[in-house]
């Protein structure tokens, strides 16, 4: 079945137009909506790696809620725990009050994640989203150091609130702030200059040079893999050198693991591959395990200098998310099975992309674990390939400064057969637009 075969009220918005979905979306919802423009269907149910629309058509989900559904839609073990908790009138909204759900999450997070990795992090619940976590991290870094400046990187994405936007690279998103975004200085991300080995001597030199115009920063914020920036992968040695520089110069290192954490690159934290211990880590998206809003800001114990209520938020105590997160940690992280399987599955995608590049040209591959990117030399072809893939039952999205990358973030629990099925659709779509 193709879009043309659907009933007239379900053909959906043509990409970029906002036409075709049930009229309430166009008449009442803001023009700011985006994903529904590329995926013109009204969705109703989902399970595992599949999502179904109101016509009964099933789509394989290679996007997984922008990385918020690492364990798929409605995982039965997590769903059972959530329904049991709600059925027993468990607390839903708890501010930062002590609750059994929060206690059990913290105990499990300590036992399953922190202690095995020798991480002595305090846990802050800053609010329910990734940008909340970033805002708390930036504020804490400035408070702890007494400095204002933050170093960020080209093509970075850290969120849509003002502090997070100030360290984000995308010009369109930055422009949406409507005011100057200050106290942040962008630096080149790994491989920004096309393979030049970077030893950061330039960075140390400008820090030492009183004529450089650079104020000593409070922190550096970095993603080990830039998802929204186009699946740009930093080498472990680059991350290590950055961490060493920060340590030498008394600059705090913040790793934004909002999208790449919770196993997306293999290990639970993406920075584990580099063998470093950041001062501050931001976590959100898949930390709840079920797609429920939840975020953490983790930091070394000596940085816990907050006064009571100095940073807060009404919805930071999402107890149903504590419940599903606890069960997800117990289910998927009590052994290393998922950690080992994710790179293997990612390699299947990488191999298919490399084969495509060798066969037809016009594309290249980059990625790590189960964040994989197919980069088109002609940026216009990436959205076109995603449109064809959608018409054939696959959800995939673009990223990068020109939307030139088809970015895949399938559930970590996806089966090999599902990967093969999705790749067949996507590779065929890419071949069509590359002809």
Question: What does the secondary structure layout of this molecule look like, with pairings?
Answer:
Layout: H1 23-28, H2 35-38, E1 43-47, E2 50-53, E3 58-61, H3 64-67, H4 76-87, H5 100-114, E4 121-124, H6 130-145, E5 150-153, H7 162-166, H8 171-175, E6 184-187, H9 201-208, E7 219-222, E8 225-226, E9 232-233, H10 236-248, E10 252-256, E11 280-283, E12 296-300, H11 319-332, H12 337-360, E13 363-368, E14 371-376, H13 381-391, E15 394-395, E16 397-399, E17 405-408, H14 416-434
Parallel strand pairs: 3-15, 5-6, 5-7, 7-10, 10-11
Antiparallel strand pairs: 1-2, 2-3, 4-12, 8-9, 11-12, 13-14, 14-17, 16-17
Helix pairs in contact: 4-11, 5-11, 12-14, 13-14
Please report the total strand number as a whole number.
Answer: 17
- Name the CATH homologous superfamily of the largest domain: Type I PLP-dependent aspartate aminotransferase-like (Major domain)
Give the overall average pLDDT.
93
By secondary-structure content and strand pairing, the structural class works out as alpha/beta
Largest sheet: 7 strands, mixed
**Low-confidence runs of at least 5 consecutive residues:** 1-19
Pfam families: Aminotran_3
EC number: 2.6.1.76
Region (Disordered): 1-23
InterPro entries: Aminotrans_3, Aminotrans_3_PPA_site, Dat, Ectoine_EctB, PyrdxlP-dep_Trfase, PyrdxlP-dep_Trfase_major, PyrdxlP-dep_Trfase_small
